[in-house]
Design brief:
The chain is mainly alpha-helical and 288 residues long. It contains 14 helices and 3 strands.
């Protein structure tokens, strides 16, 4: 396999975006919060929410002492609001199991609510400097093209971690840089559509480019359209609760003009099932 680490790391040091979680001293809690927020959410939307969140709850114990409803309200319109509840539960677990300190061990991180393979390794690497492969969607696309000669990656699998491990330098600091560099390259240059191959530091090492950019198919799962979806209905119900003065609304007044009443009722039921809302004495409210 050609050397990918050196040119990619050099490119990253010259071209990396200035993002809050990459700045010195941001801390493990900040890294963990940012990773929760960045799941399926663009960077430019995350940054103001992250800054507001960290100003309000600068440590896990601060969030753990707050009500779950406060976390849901602060999450605002970031989308996938279950992440707010999961982050709150993780903060409680960090307080109760780890004396308020975000754990460093990957297995301990995986045991926290809402944390999977990617987030656990991202915290261990980017907050603590340990050597682990960190693989997100952008990294998978870079590896698929540069190493495998594919136009798009296949479905996520454990093989992704093995592929990233194969190119990581032995030095922990260098490995952390390469993990970040692969993600950055996929986010800004080796993008899903119209990649900027002429600007890529790996263009002379890329198997996909050498093969003439073949279309090898796209097995990525397509996200359902948002407009008119149950997700939009759930968002409208939550917004109603967040905007209400007491964060509680009579059930009959929850988005009464929603065009599909069955979809609205389904959204309410699903929010209750997920713990994002509570029905109490004829009211729908944020979780107490």
């Amino acid at each position: 396999m050609p050397d990918l680490a050196a040119p990619l790391a050099e490119w990253y040091r010259e071209n990396a975006r200035d993002l809050p979680w990459r700045r010195p001293g941001f801390g493990p809690w900040g890294v963990l919060v940012s990773e929760f927020m960045l799941q399926q959410t663009p960077v430019n939307r995350v940054i103001p929410h992250l800054e507001a969140w960290m100003a309000r709850w600068p440590a896990p114990t601060d969030l753990a002492a707050a009500a779950p409803a406060d976390a849901v309200r602060q999450w605002a319109n970031l989308g996938y609001p279950r992440r707010a509840l999961w982050l709150h539960r993780a903060a409680v677990e960090i307080r109760d199991r780890h004396d308020g300190v975000v754990p460093r061990d990957v297995d301990a991180l995986l045991a926290l609510t809402g944390i999977g393979d990617y987030t656990a390794r991202a915290v261990a690497v980017f907050a603590y400097g340990d050597r682990h492969p960190v693989v997100d969607t952008n990294t998978r696309r870079v590896l698929a093209r540069v190493v495998d000669g594919r136009s798009q990656p296949g479905p996520p699998s454990r093989r992704d971690l093995e592929a990233m491990s194969a190119i990581l330098p032995d030095d922990r600091a260098d490995a952390a840089v390469l993990n970040a560099a692969a993600m950055e390259l996929g986010a800004t240059v080796c993008v899903a559509r119209s990649p900027r191959c002429d600007a890529c530091p790996l263009r002379d090492r890329c198997a996909w480019r050498a093969a003439g950019y073949p279309d090898t198919g796209d097995e990525r799962r397509r996200q359902a359209r948002y407009k008119g979806s149950d997700r939009q209905a759930r968002g409208a119900v939550l917004k109603t609760l967040r905007d209400a003065a007491t964060h509680a609304v009579p059930l009959g007044q929850v988005v009464p003009d929603w065009p599909d009443t069955r979809q609205r009722d389904r959204a309410i039921d699903s929010l209750i099932a997920d713990g994002l809302a509570e029905a109490y004495d004829g009211l729908l409210r944020l979780p107490a």
